[in-house]
Every structure is written in structure tokens, then in C-alpha cells.
UniProtKB/TrEMBL annotation:
An example Gene Ontology molecular-function term: ATP binding
Swiss-Prot/TrEMBL keywords: ATP-binding, Cell membrane, Membrane, Nucleotide-binding
Gene Ontology cellular component list: membrane
Domain of life: Bacteria
Pfam families reported for this sequence: ABC_tran
Keyword Iron: no
InterPro entries attached to this UniProt entry: AAA+_ATPase, ABC_transporter-like_ATP-bd, ABC_transporter-like_CS, ABC_transpr_TagH-like, Bact_Polysacc_Export_ATP-bd, P-loop_NTPase
Entry protein name: ABC-2 type transport system ATP-binding protein/lipopolysaccharide transport system ATP-binding protein
SUPFAM superfamilies: P-loop containing nucleoside triphosphate hydrolases
Domain ABC transporter: 23-252
């Protein structure tokens, strides 16, 4: 049985240069949405503060909040990219993340070689890769370019390659920072169908998005983050109502 548990997760980023009162640190704190806190020697940005929730199979959680509220930081902690400063994350099941589609891309390697490298980094077994390789190749529609180095690819071609590989994964727990696209309008319809299938096959979804429509489409509950702190969790309607009210309170007419 797949699950995700965040137990009082706190994440601090150390600021290793400049004084705690510098304009740079103040701007960094504002940009990340965290709070600048002075440690004994090194000032810290508090990216997440005591975040806690439990997700079970069938849960599809939308992360809501302004830029720098802590959504991406939370996804990276759930993915195991960042270790919490305190608290812990427990997961059961295969975790698949789309946080960095270009991860593992080797410019001098061919497209096919990059499919293999990327798939291994995503945690696919060799037998699983071989089983899915022909389907990934066909989906990219890159033809002979797959035998050429990725450094000659356009950005759209590189995105196609990465998109086809990551969406071939079978996930128990899927982590997404915004809905991924292909960078190619002609390819979009085909990609949208594949993406929807990829998302719906996951047992648990955690999706960060600024779009209420996207959250409504893919999620069945939401969590509001502000300056790394939980400000509400519940139905999508309830959470967006709180979000809009907090925005209105900060910007009175």
C-alpha cells in the first residue's frame, strides 16, 4: 500500500555569503518566500516550517501558493533531493519526479543513449528499459536524430526526448512542479493524451501549480503554503477561497 507522510518537516537554506542584514539576503528571503533567520554564524532562509500531512492511495494533492511559498522546496524534500533540517518524510512505493526533465541529459551522447541514461537515473530496471525502449523511440518522432548527439537538438526536440522517457515510467507516487509540456505545438495533442494517462495511472499525486483549473482537473484536495508554512489544507474550493482571501487582505482596494 503506497503512502506519503510528512512529519513536521522543516527546511532551512543557509546563506553562505554576506551579512544577515544585507540587501541581498533580504531579497533572497522575499524571493523564496521564506523568512530570514539568524543562526549562530550563518543566516538562514526558512523554506519550510513544520509541514505535516499524510497521503494514501487515491489522494491527489495540489500545492497552492505564490512564487517562493515553498511548493518546489516541499516537492524536492518529498523526492529525496533535499534532506529536511528537522522532521522526516516517509514514503512507500516508487517515487517518480518530473522536477527536472533535463536531469541526466548528456550533450555528446546520442538520443537513444540519453534515453538509457535518463531511464536508469529515474530508477528503471534494465529489463524494464528494454521492454519500453521501442515505444519511447516511436513516441518521440525524432527518427534519425535519435542516432545523433543531443547537443545538435533544438530545445523542443530535447524536451520531447525527456518527456517521452519520463512518461514511460510507472509511478506509485508522482511529484510534479506544474504540468510538463513538450515545447512543440504540433506535438501537443499527442503529448496531452500521454500526460493525462501518466498522471491518472499514479496511485498518489502531488502537483504544484498556479492554475486553479489545473488543480481542479487533476487533484481532489489542496494544501496552501505561505512563507513555507501551511495556511490551509482541505477541499480545493476551501483552500482557494482561503488563498484568495489572503491575497485580498494583503492588497486592500
Amino acid at each position: 500500500m503506497s503512502f506519503v507522510q510528512a512529519q513536521q518537516v522543516t527546511l532551512d537554506y543557509p546563506i553562505v555569503s554576506g551579512g544577515s542584514r544585507s540587501l541581498k539576503n533580504q531579497l533572497l528571503g522575499a524571493a523564496t518566500g521564506g523568512l530570514i533567520a539568524s543562526g549562530d554564524r550563518i543566516p538562514l532562509v526558512k523554506a519550510l516550517q513544520n509541514v505535516h500531512f499524510c497521503l494514501k492511495e487515491g489522494d491527489r494533492l495540489g500545492l497552492v501558493g505564490h512564487n517562493g511559498a515553498g511548493k518546489s522546496s516541499l516537492l524536492k524534500v518529498l523526492a529525496g533531493i533535499y534532506k529536511p533540517t528537522s522532521g522526516k518524510v516517509l514514503t512507500e512505493g516508487r517515487v517518480v519526479s518530473t522536477l527536472n526533465l533535463s536531469l541526466g541529459m548528456e550533450p555528446e551522447a546520442t538520443g537513444i543513449e540519453n534515453i538509457l541514461i535518463r531511464a536508469l537515473l529515474l530508477g528503471m530496471k534494465k529489463a524494464e528499459i528494454q521492454k519500453k525502449l521501442d515505444e519511447i523511440i516511436e513516441f518521440t518522432e525524432l527518427g534519425e536524430y535519435l542516432h545523433m548527439p543531443v547537443r545538435i537538438y533544438s530545445s523542443g526536440m530535447a524536451t520531447r526526448l525527456a518527456f517521452a522517457t519520463v512518461t514511460a515510467m510507472e509511478s506509485d507516487i508522482l511529484l510534479m512542479d506544474e504540468v510538463i509540456g513538450t515545447g512543440d505545438a504540433q506535438f501537443m495533442d499527442k503529448a496531452e493524451h500521454r500526460l493525462n494517462e501518466f498522471i491518472y495511472k499514479s496511485k498518489i499525486l502531488v502537483l504544484a501549480s498556479h492554475s486553479e483549473a489545473i488543480i481542479q482537473k487533476f487533484c481532489n484536495k489542496a494544501l496552501l503554503l505561505e512563507q513555507g508554512q501551511m495556511r490551509g489544507m482541505g477541499s480545493i474550493e476551501e483552500v482557494f477561497s482561503i488563498y484568495r482571501q489572503r491575497i485580498a487582505d494583503r492588497n486592500p482596494i
